[in-house]
Structure formats: C-alpha cells, structure tokens
Amino acid sequence: MLKIGVTGGIGSGKTQVCSIISAMGYPIFNADLVARRIVEEDSKIIMSIKEVFGDNIYSNGLLNRKRVAELVFSNPKLLETLNYIVHPAVKDYFNNWVLNYHSRSLVVEEAAILFESDTYKDLDKIIVVSAPLEVRINRVKKRDGMSREAILNRINSQLHQEELIKRGDYIIENDEVQLILPQIVVIINDLLKDSL
C-alpha cells in the first residue's frame, strides 16, 4: 500500500484535490479535521491546551478557535507548542486509520503541515497543491470571511509555497487556469505504475 500526502498552503485547494481523489475511489484521511476533533474530545490534549492557553480558552467544552488562531498565528512559539501537543495524536489516529485499508493500493493523508509536523516521514510520496498568492487569498476570504491580514498571518506561519514545491514529489498547479483533474489522473497513474 502506498501512503500519499497531499499538502499545500491555506487556500491552495488541497481539499478540492482530495475530493477528486476520493471520487476516484481512494480513501482520504483529513488530518486537519481530526485535529479539530481531538482538541475537543481528548482529555489529555484538552488539559495540555489549558495549561498553555488558560482554562478560559474552552467554553462549554468547545475550544475558542478564533482566540487560539489570533494567538498562534501571531506567535510562532505558541504555534509550535500547539502543534507539539496535537500532532502526535493525529499521527496515532492516522496509523490506526491506515489499518482499515491494508488491502488498498493507495491511501491519502491531507494535511496543511505535513513537513512542519514531520508527518511526511511516514509517507511514500508527497503531492503539493500550489496556487498564486492572490488566488489563495481570495479563496480564503470567500470561504472563511477572514481579513487579508489574518490570511497573510496564516500564510506566513506555514512553509512558503516555494519550499513546499522543492520538497514535494509531485506538484498540482491549482491556479484556476489549468485543469486539476488531468494533473491528478497523471499523478495517480504514475504512483500506481511505480507500486506494481
């Protein structure tokens, strides 16, 4: 079984690419969604987050995501600490999830920070989804209603797109000019050919 990572900066179109791969019949593990769930369900992680951010970062059992985002995307050390708390648990979830698909030829992990969290080390190949900065900003504004400044803070907290492209095995240009489906098909075919 090939374990493939799909990554890219905020607004690059990772989820769109993974939706297409899923429609092709391949299982997708969305690390960001699992992380969101873990921070509200795992008592050890909740305790660790409260130790760093204070008890009032939770209200009625729900993490104040907006406040956490304000804090971590303006303070790289806090972001690093949060990732250190959450990502080992996400990795464990992924490893258990993979066991359900042992007979599959290919599974995919979608994650914004595959390289920063060292998740890439457990994967066979990495697909990077790339898009021009202004396209990414406009997508996130439309999707999340965030300000340009907040979006840029998030972009600047992640590995720069150029670095992702250097480190990826495959690149999908999601620039609203090139079609992404043909790019995905070529990559999947290449991956499966190499695994035979």
How does this model look, in words?
- It is built from 9 helices and 7 strands, in the order βαβααββααββαααβα.
- The chain is α/β, with parallel strands linked by helices and 196 residues long.
- It has helices at 14-23, 31-41, 43-53, 65-72, 76-99, 133-144, 148-157, 161-167, 180-195, and strands spanning 2-7, 28-30, 58-59, 62-63, 106-110, 125-130, 170-173.
- It starts with a strand and ends with a helix.
- Strands 2-5-1-6-7 form a 5-stranded parallel β-sheet, with helices on both faces.
Helix content: 55-70%
Distance between the termini: 10 Å
Main CATH class: Alpha Beta
CATH superfamily: P-loop containing nucleotide triphosphate hydrolases
The total tally of domains equals 1
Could you tell me the number of beta strands? 7
Low-confidence spans: pLDDT under 50, at least 5 residues? none
The CATH architecture would be: 3-Layer(aba) Sandwich
Major sheet: arrangement of strands: 2-5-1-6-7
Task: From the 3D structure, determine the CATH topology.
Answer: Rossmann fold
The gyration radius over C-alpha positions equals 17 Å
Q: How would you classify the helix and strand content by structural class?
A: alpha/beta
> Quick one: biggest sheet?
5 strands, parallel
Number of discrete helical segments: 9
- The outline comes out as globular
Residues in β-strands, percent: 5-15%
The whole-number mean of residue pLDDT values reads: 94
Q: H/E order of the elements? A: EHEHHEEHHEEHHHEH
Q: What tags apply to this protein structure?
A:
9 helices, 196 residues, alpha/beta, two-stranded antiparallel ribbon, Rossmann fold
